[in-house]
Protein: Tripartite-type tricarboxylate transporter receptor subunit TctC
Amino acid sequence: MPIKSLRLLAGIALVASTAAYAQNYPTKTVTVIVPFAAGGPTDTVARLVAQSMSKTLNQQVIVENVGGAGGTIGAARVAKADPDGYTLFLHHIGQSTAPALYRKLSYNAIDSFEPIGLITDVPMTFVARKDFPAKDFKELVSYVKANKSKVTYANAGVGSASHLCGMLFMSAIDADLTTVPYKGTGPAMNDLLGGQVDFMCDQTTNTTSQIKSGKIKAYAVTTKSRVASLPEIPTTAEAGLGSFEVAVWHGLYAPKGTPKPIVDSLSKALQVALKDSNVKQRFAELGTEPVAENRATPDAHRAFLKSEIDKWSPIIKKAGVYAD
Structure:
């Protein structure tokens, strides 16, 4: 038989084999790698989604926490995993900032993964210690600009959402503030509650309960519209900061080379999860909501990730912030 015919038959056999494999997927437990410690906002989102996807896929979907280096250790592990649909990756906005923040990455934020779909956009809130002098966001901006050498801004470390929001804020008001980095949102919030630092910008998933209890002051949310769980807090645009907008989005990925039928199957399971009444209720309690169905797709996710990399790279480079 001619070589060309043999190659054609081999190709047909491979396609048929892949299709059959994908049709039976999954046949065992699926693991979702979260590149942060358990108990954080990304971990919470992952566990809610994984629990719901388990029902659709008829196999257990579990979460494994692989923290360290701003999420890049977990990302690198998934990038090197077998592209069989059994090792997935759930990450937040950090997937789009890592290329600019880290001088050397063992993976490519776009080319090393197959995007499955976006999950949710978590709003950020500008909050301060309970006795901070500023009464509203306009006064906050004026106060920090006038006292920038004295005011302390807390963040959860290089590459964290609070760090990124702070950089964008400082760029917007054209002022360099004294920043105090922590090893996570927990200790940063503890010091804000204790009055050791002045203010920070953090996700509603971490601030809503503290705001409602009156333990901290809230000045603005960083979305175009007000947040349903915090309706009394104005947006940054309403408060006078123009087009300032930051949302901590979360997305689901598979390793590059994962067969399209499997990616599509996972995307459909994700879309079902985002319509799950329990997921929607828990998201609402955390101050967020699932993305629209047309954003929970591979193509939409890929395009959005690229746009976010293009958005954050010049901001990070201008700030001169790098992590090894």
User: Anything to note?
Assistant: The longest helix spans residues 3-24. The longest strand covers residues 113-129. The domain at 3-121+249-319 is CATH 3.40.190.150 (D-Maltodextrin-Binding Protein; domain 2). DSSP finds eleven helices and nine strands in the chain.
